[in-house]
Amino acid sequence: MVATHPPQKVTVIGAGMVGLSTAWFLQEHGVQVEVVDREGVAAGSSWGNAGWLTPGLSTPLPDPAVLSYGIKAVVSPASPVYVPVTTDLRLLRFLATFTRNSTMRRWNRSMRALAPINARALAAFDALHEGGVAEPTHEAHSFLAGYRSKAETDFMLTELRHIAEAGQEMHFEELTGEEVRALEPTFSEIVGAGIRLFDQRYIHPPRYVASLADSVRARGATIRTGVTVTGLTPETKGVRLDVAEGAPEVHEQVVVANGTWISSLVRGLGVRTPVQAGRGYSFSSPIDHEPSGPVYLPNERVACTPLGDGRLRVAGMMEFRPPEAPLDQRRVEAVVEAARPFLRGVDLDHREDEWVGSRPCTPDGLPTIGATSSPRVHVAGGHGMWGITLGPATGQLLAEAMVTGRPVPELTPFDPLR
Ligand SMILES: Cc1cc2nc3c(=O)[nH]c(=O)nc-3n(C[C@H](O)[C@H](O)[C@H](O)COP(=O)(O)OP(=O)(O)OC[C@H]3O[C@@H](n4cnc5c(N)ncnc54)[C@H](O)[C@@H]3O)c2cc1C
Known about the structure:
Layout (H helix, E strand, L loop, with lengths): L8 E5 L3 H12 L3 E6 L14 E2 L10 H12 L5 E2 L6 H13 L2 H27 L7 E2 L3 E5 L6 H12 L6 E5 H7 L9 E5 L3 E2 L2 H14 L3 E4 L3 E7 L2 E6 L5 E3 L1 E4 L5 H5 L9 E11 L8 E3 L4 E5 L4 E9 L9 H11 L12 E10 L6 E4 L5 E5 L5 H18 L14
Parallel strand pairs: 1-2, 1-14, 2-10, 4-18, 6-16, 14-21
Antiparallel strand pairs: 3-9, 5-9, 6-8, 7-8, 11-12, 12-13, 15-18, 15-19, 16-17, 17-18, 20-21
Helix pairs in contact: 1-7, 1-10, 4-10
The protein binds flavin-adenine dinucleotide (FAD).
The site of flavin-adenine dinucleotide has 41 residues, from helix 1, strand 2, strand 15, strand 19 and helix 10.
């Protein structure tokens, strides 16, 4: 079974940030593209996320600190990381591997693997902009992390040092509580210290992904919705897709970019790294004063983003439960109560768009990008907390690999067959 380079036509499964970016960059190379999604554009985690384009913070999820959160979480359901007591064997295996990877040595190795793709992240957004994606990215004029005390900043300062050691430049400055509030009055009196990050950006996620989809369509692609792919079989002349709503279809080449659900489609194609839902919650609230950048509460694991319409999106929580489980109101309350003491002028009791979505997490904290055991089937996903930041760079690099048929060094550590 051979795949031609460049492919004539590629079908992308999944109309989230990763699938649409891959479609867009394949189009840059003159490849004809079709995108299919069971629901619609940004129906998965690309909708309700915090919209941070923060390559400076794009680090591997399994680290010793998250692990200690996880252990606490089993006994404390209000913790920002929730691991239910479970008998689900897949989840237990995932957690066991995740735990094994949560050492400083493995974190450093994964961080070095992420640094080269992180370095390309913002330029890939610029390429989308120059190529016609109308919705802008916003410079974060004040990207501020707020803490109760100076002592609490130690963890992030150490992490920033480790990030630098892995070869990733990150500019930041330490601030007092007064300096934090002077820059951003949304922080309350409880904030006694802060860290300001430079050179990061943010987007309005639903608007951005819709605009990316418009651009993909304008460049000649069809986005077919209401197409649930239930199975995928490489054949001599193409890839057969079993579709819940109709007859099987045969496609020349396929990119599987269906977020948290990737494993169900590619498990039989040599992809052993499982993708597991790390569910997060978000909502938006009216705000008196629109911040000029993201507001970050690292210890509370809460991420806030100005939406540009007098509302603040508040996001948080890491919940290892099935992606189809309903929204759990207690988790929304946990995010509200974690954020409340730190914020001023945000009406957290008047919430809209309460949402739960699934970060596609891998146990080694690295995405899975590249060919499966079939050269006609590629995978793009598993970015965990950072699929918005890394979606365009992923699409750009994967399109290059597919079109040239040559390995792309930045993608080597993310080999789906690892
Ligand atoms: C609370 C929260 C905050 C976050 N904040 C940030 C942030 O600030 N910055 C950042 O970089 N990342 C953030 N993330 C992570 C980011 O949202 C994800 O990594 C990213 O959206 C993943 O994109 P994707 O395209 O891989 O998947 P998705 O957006 O989930 O898209 C997958 C698509 O596949 C479709 N699909 C699924 N199964 C099938 C099937 N069988 N057939 C057809 N279609 C199918 C779905 O309908 C969906 O549209 C956050 C996540 C959460 C939950």
